[in-house]
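Hi R.,

Here's the input for the tryptophan complex you asked about:
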Amino acid sequence: MNRESSNVSKTTFTSRVFSGIQPSGGLTLGNYLGAIKRFVAMQKPEFETIYCVVDLHALTVWQNPQELAHNSRELCAGFIAAGLDPNKSILIRQSQVPEHTQLAWIFNCIARVGWMQRMTQFKDKAGKNSQNASLGLFCYPALMAADILLYHATHVPVGDDQKQHLELTRDIASKFNHDYQIDFFPIAKPVIEGDATRIMSLRDGTKKMSKSEPSDMSRINLTDDADMIAHKIRKAKTDPEPLPMEIVGLENRPEALNLVQIYAALSDQSPEFVLQDVGGKTFSEFKKMLADLAIAELVPISTEMKRLMSDIGEIDHILCSGAEKARSIASPILQETYEIVGMT
Ligand code: AMP
Ligand code: TRP
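And here is the predicted structure with tryptophan in place:
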């Protein structure tokens, strides 16, 4: 098949951005700095941006149905409250665009069992009893590749933990192109940039800040109020030394480095620049500055999220019109994929 003859190749967009977040719990500061804040930064005229509530991915581990429905809408509210504008970005819920699962099946037949077995996120999530993990959790990365390639996305902003899944997406695209002798799926570029790609737990600077960590004190949630944010930062683990003037002094102090990186990401500065300012200060002084900064940025977002959640109908309307726009891009690409594999 000649790619040039398809409608898809006539797209006028130079760059298309796709990313997703699972509605498997509330949003954390890690999601905000590592993902959503960067989604907002990419919302500019040179990119067409598509951001997705990946509820099918969340379902790979047990989800209470009422909570899944609530969390999916709350995540959409979080996107909008943080600055994603439904008039500039396409906001979707994965299960409302059936082409994602249709392409995922084709990719299940392209990807190899051995590739999936190497995925560290599967090993971490499945734990010791991997025989008992859902089949969905095992083939999760093929659905993620479908999310991205269904739109011929060129840029994928994610946190550091998604690097391996994006390499697998590239392997699936290459194998498909090779098997069918066609240059059809692009090789999407991971955008893992900045100092916030790995925000760590407030209780242990060697562990990622995560919504699934049992201790709520380990993370800042986007729904925390000002007092709670200040309390968690005050209680964050540190060490007895004052802050150094240069980043080299933080190499073996993971908790201190994490707080400096959070400050830098919140204030859009480099950690080096932050240290020029705060080097020499004690942690109690620095934590006060950090709490003020975090509250100033996060509280307006959580207030707006609450306001948006008081009108579920409006959120559903935004997701419904997002799904329509998304399907108008996805459907011809899926159709062309079907033709390539012989489903004509
Ligand atoms: P998840 O919550 O696992 O669906 O992750 C959604 C997005 O947030 C992905 O791009 C992750 O890489 C990013 N993310 C999650 N936790 C962190 C963290 N602690 N630091 C930086 N990015 C994160
Ligand atoms: N797997 C990602 C995570 O856990 C979420 C995700 C699903 C995603 N599909 C995607 C991210 C496509 C980027 C692009 O964070």
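One thing worth noting: The pocket of tryptophan (ligand 2) is lined by residues 18-20, 22, 54, 57, 144, 147-148, 156, 158, 162, 165 (CB under 6 Å).

Cheers,
M.
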